[in-house]
Design brief:
It comes from Dyadobacter beijingensis. This is Membrane protein. InterPro entries: ABC3_permease_C, Lipoprotein-release_system, MacB_PCD. Belongs to the ABC-4 integral membrane protein family. LolC/E subfamily. The chain has 2 domains: 198 residues, no CATH class; 198 residues, no CATH class. 53% of the residues lie in helices and 19% in strands. It is built from 12 helices and 12 strands. Strands 3-4-9-6-8-7 form a 6-stranded mixed barrel. Strands 2-10 form a two-stranded antiparallel sheet. Strand 3 and strand 4 form a beta hairpin. The two termini are 30 Å apart. The C terminus is likely disordered.
Length: 408
Amino acid sequence: MDISYRIAIRYFFSRNKRSFISLIARIAMAGVAVGTMAMVVVLSVFNGMEDLNRKIFKTFDSDVRIVPAEGKRFKITPSMLNELKSVQGVQLVTQVIEDNALARYGNQQTIIRLKGVDSTFAQQKQLDTAMVEGSRRLTGDNGTSYALIAEGIRNALSITLEDIFTPIELLYPRTSSKTLNLTSPEAFNQVNLRPGGIFFIENRYDDYIIAPLKQVEGLMGYNGERSALEVYTKPGYAEKDIAEALSAKLGKGFVVKDRDSLNADLLRAIKMEKLFVAVTLSLIILVAAINIFFSLSMLAIEKKNDVSMLYAMGATESLIRKIFMAEGAIVALSGAVVGLLGGIGICWLQMRYGLVSMGMATSLVDAYPVKLIWEDILYTGVVVVMITMVVSYIPARRAAESGMLLRV
């Protein structure tokens, strides 16, 4: 072990006899430990929230979505579908028609987001974990067409799956009508579907109704046109890479985005909040580490004679600085280790037992999501080391200079 660390360790343990200096050192250690622990826990919560949002998106959104660069619809051809399916990593391509419509059930009505999907929807199994009532099928054995209804629409229209006689009526303005007369039944196309299942994901999806593509196409008069194509990838393939390959095949007439790009604003907001919180907690650790500065300053005053003796024995100014910087490092490292272990322990307990609840009845998870990422732990350790070097340098330099003056 380097002699500077030997002397620093000796000072660290021997100074416990000096109550005031020892108290400041303990306060510094506790401050660094609490700040480090808070940083690990808070950054892990942000990681958990980001991971939870990605799971929510995956429950409803496709891996890759293709929409026209201009307009709301585009013509689909078998050759185009085959070309997309030929891209390596593509598992399914679902044809989608999506637009706002009017839903009516009994005496109640509301505006909904209607999404028509083709037969490949049955192979996706996305909504399996989100179903709260009924089944996920869109077509029955006898040819009956069903609709999957979001929990928010079910509550707005008071839909009951047990009532097999009342259909849900979907209305969409006729494109041939030059003026829209809301009182005229001739102004709307209409299709009746039987409610088949209720799903709940998150509030942003609470206005959706999913229906068979054929019925939605006739309702909205798309005539072979589609508003989007949803692509699902095979396991082991990166969504971003497949999105780039599909974009290269389709050209500039289409916009191709992977799931993260579709929800880029929310994910970016979470990352920015995480960054600001990390900076804020780093400043809090810096404030806590100021106690290291005072502790080393007082220790330097106390050890003036020892420093002079070391100079007389041949010590250099660099060695004296290293001794006091090592002393600060020991104090900070002790607090950092306790803080890191405490933060990791709290996160593990939360992941294992869910100690802190979300407190919301409509939440998909009961407890706050937490995810430990080792890069965050490394970042926290680096922050503590840098702060320790900053607050320890001035007392260490002063100790070296004062010892040199006493020697002279």
